[in-house]
């Protein structure tokens, strides 16, 4: 136990640890991730965590991860994860123990998992992010269920049509059915795939 404590203290002293800091809103324009915001599409930053190597920029449209190789390298890889195409899930928050210097938030965007250590003095702010991400995941889960129900209803209707006798021009009828299915699926996708979760962030993030 003592070895772990002293090892962690030494890591912080030597700058080997990578505990993130939550950036104040007035400094959002100073982080690297701000350069990749889609202002033209109404994208807005709501939360930023910055460590020695990485930046995690949460916007109304998703997450911009500015991935650094090391604290001494200037090389960065910018990765974008959007709510429209990736579901948020497995959101957890691990609070600090007596000797811990950090708290940890974990979550996933689709198949991509994240684990971010944050200064434990900023736990109250991190709780806001936890609540926002959890709520977004809940909304997406509900939307997915509604979309699945819609597709199942469409499949049932198609099955009923396939068993009925088609009168007139069969080719034209099949073309109409195909167009209807395509339009139905697109409308369902648009209706139950939120692109913008700004309202959720505004509800939970106290900037």
UniProtKB/TrEMBL annotation:
Segments forming domain Bacterial Pleckstrin homology: 14-135
A Pfam family matched in the record: YvbH_ext
Domain annotation YvbH-like oligomerisation: ranges: 152-207
InterPro entries named in the record: PHb, PHb_sf, YvbH_oligomer_dom
Protein name: PH domain-containing protein
Superkingdom of origin: Bacteria
């Amino acid at each position: 136990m003592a070895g772990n404590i002293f090892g962690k203290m030494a890591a912080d002293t030597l700058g080997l640890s990578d505990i993130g800091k939550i950036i104040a809103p007035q400094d959002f324009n100073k982080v690297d991730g701000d350069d990749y915001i889609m202002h033209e599409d109404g994208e807005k930053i709501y939360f930023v965590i910055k460590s020695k190597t990485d930046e995690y920029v949460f916007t109304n449209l998703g997450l911009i991860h500015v991935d650094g190789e090391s604290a001494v390298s200037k090389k960065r890889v910018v990765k974008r994860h959007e709510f429209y195409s990736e579901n948020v899930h497995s959101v957890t928050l691990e609070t600090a123990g007596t000797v811990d210097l950090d708290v940890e938030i974990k979550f996933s965007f689709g198949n991509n998992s994240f684990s971010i250590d944050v200064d434990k003095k900023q736990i109250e702010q991190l709780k806001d992010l936890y609540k926002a991400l959890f709520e977004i995941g809940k909304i997406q889960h509900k939307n997915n269920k509604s979309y699945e129900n819609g597709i199942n209803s469409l499949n049932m209707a198609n099955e009923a049509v396939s068993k009925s006798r088609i009168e007139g021009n069969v080719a034209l009828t099949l073309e109409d059915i195909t167009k209807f299915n395509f339009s139905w699926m697109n409308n369902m996708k648009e209706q139950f795939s939120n692109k913008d979760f700004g309202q959720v962030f505004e509800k939970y993030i106290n900037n």
